[in-house]
């Protein structure tokens, strides 16, 4: 049985268990926590090693700049399209209408960082400290400079490169071992979430969730499929089949970073993207390409505006789009960034940030779909860049028999 099918069965059983047990299902939460901890212990060294090796594999500095520029352009395009999609569907569904909020709801939020603080925070003062604190964006910046420096060092840099290649291979193997436990972890996570939220708590916000998931699906079908079909000249169907394992892990863990090892496997082994491209694009995308969060930011702003009876003019919508694009990019390296960065968007157009407390209850459920959209956006970018650079094996992309994750080398 393939891993994604095991995960799907575990997910369904977890939801059923949570609904039957109710709050008592919280007893399973530590098991899910152990699984997430196992994944988290892989991430930092995997990102450092794989991205460093990926950069050193691109010996031509011009190619490195070209790949990076193409990736960032695709990320910026899909992020802005996601915000517009969120605004569009929030108007279609009229999210937030009828709540008629008048009294402020108390909510404690950290002071959101300014744009300049975000830009300054991506450069590590101490790479070891960044590893310890789990600051992925800073590690990516360090890996970028480390990989370039190894190339410039020539023969003297080869021992360090061999060490990083060995570390990357070991982390890939460790990923395959940890993923054997994913069905158990997914079952425990979904049981505790379903037990905590139940069904009744979703009723007041069901319209928002429906609008969000509709926008996410349309964004996936219109934007991602258009990039694959028209720009990469590829059929989208093998893409979704090849990413099935990563989709299930992303939906259950709600973490782009936690899904990164599985995404790298799917893109390389199932879809034929070279390690040179995937090792560079995917870690970068997991921190700066947040399509799911971008849709949420636009939709949440309209939701709160409607709830408080605030009219948003075109100037406010333009300001919202630009600010949300920048904050979606900057959110990745900031702990608890979802709601904290949304305060930047709200402040830019004068919305009451205390309204975020209303959406806090469904954020975990919203994040499940959001994470799937995030990882699919990263994979689409990797495929497009690989096709442009001649590093996509189309025979492998269209292969009907996909390589199973269990017991295979990643």
From TrEMBL:
InterPro entries: Na-dicarboxylate_symporter, Na:dicarbo_symporter_sf
Alphabetically ordered keywords of this record: Cell membrane, Membrane, Symport, Transmembrane, Transmembrane helix, Transport
Principal subcellular localization: membrane
Segments passing through the bilayer: 35-59, 71-93, 136-154, 181-203, 209-230, 280-305, 317-334, 340-362
Molecular function per GO: symporter activity
Domain of life: Bacteria
Locations listed in the record: Cell membrane
Protein name (Swiss-Prot/TrEMBL): Proton/sodium-glutamate symport protein
């Amino acid at each position: 049985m393939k891993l994604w099918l095991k995960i799907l069965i575990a997910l369904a059983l977890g939801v059923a268990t949570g609904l039957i047990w109710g709050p008592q299902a919280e007893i399973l939460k530590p098991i899910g926590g152990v699984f997430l901890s196992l994944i988290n212990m892989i991430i930092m060294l995997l990102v450092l090693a794989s991205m460093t090796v990926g950069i050193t594999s691109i010996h031509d500095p011009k190619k490195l700049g070209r790949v990076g520029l193409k990736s960032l352009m695709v990320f910026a395009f899909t992020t802005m399209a996601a915000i517009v999609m969120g605004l569009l569907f929030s108007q279609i569904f009229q999210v937030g209408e009828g709540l008629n909020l008048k009294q402020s709801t108390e909510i404690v939020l950290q002071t959101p960082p300014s744009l300049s603080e975000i830009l300054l925070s991506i450069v590590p003062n101490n790479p070891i400290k960044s590893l310890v604190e789990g600051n992925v964006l800073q590690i990516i910046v360090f890996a970028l400079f480390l990989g370039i420096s190894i190339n410039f060092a020539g023969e003297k840099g080869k021992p360090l490169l061999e060490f990083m290649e060995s570390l990357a291979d070991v982390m890939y193997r460790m990923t395959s071992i940890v993923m054997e436990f994913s069905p158990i972890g997914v079952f425990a996570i979904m049981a505790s979430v379903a037990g905590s939220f139940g069904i009744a708590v979703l009723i007041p916000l069901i319209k928002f969730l429906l609008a969000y998931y509709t926008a996410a699906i349309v964004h996936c079908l219109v934007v991602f499929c258009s990039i694959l079909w028209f720009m990469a000249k590829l059929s989208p169907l093998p893409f979704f089949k090849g990413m099935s394992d990563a989709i299930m892990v992303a939906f259950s863990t709600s973490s782009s970073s936690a899904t990164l090892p599985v995404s790298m496997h799917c893109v390389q082994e199932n879809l034929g993207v070279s390690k040179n491209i995937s090792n560079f694009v995917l870690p970068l995308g997991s921190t700066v390409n947040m399509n799911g969060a971008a849709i949420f930011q636009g939709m949440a702003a309209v939701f709160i505006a409607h709830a408080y009876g605030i009219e948003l003019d075109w100037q406010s919508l333009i300001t919202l789009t630009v600010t949300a694009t920048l904050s979606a990019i900057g959110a990745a390296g900031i702990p608890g960034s979802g709601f904290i960065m949304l305060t930047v968007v709200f402040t830019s157009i004068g919305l009451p940030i205390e309204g975020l407390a209303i959406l806090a209850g469904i954020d975990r459920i919203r994040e499940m779909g959001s994470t799937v959209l995030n990882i699919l956006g990263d994979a689409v970018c990797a495929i497009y860049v690989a096709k442009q650079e001649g590093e996509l094996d189309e025979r492998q992309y269209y292969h009907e028999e996909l390589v199973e994750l269990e017991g295979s080398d990643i």
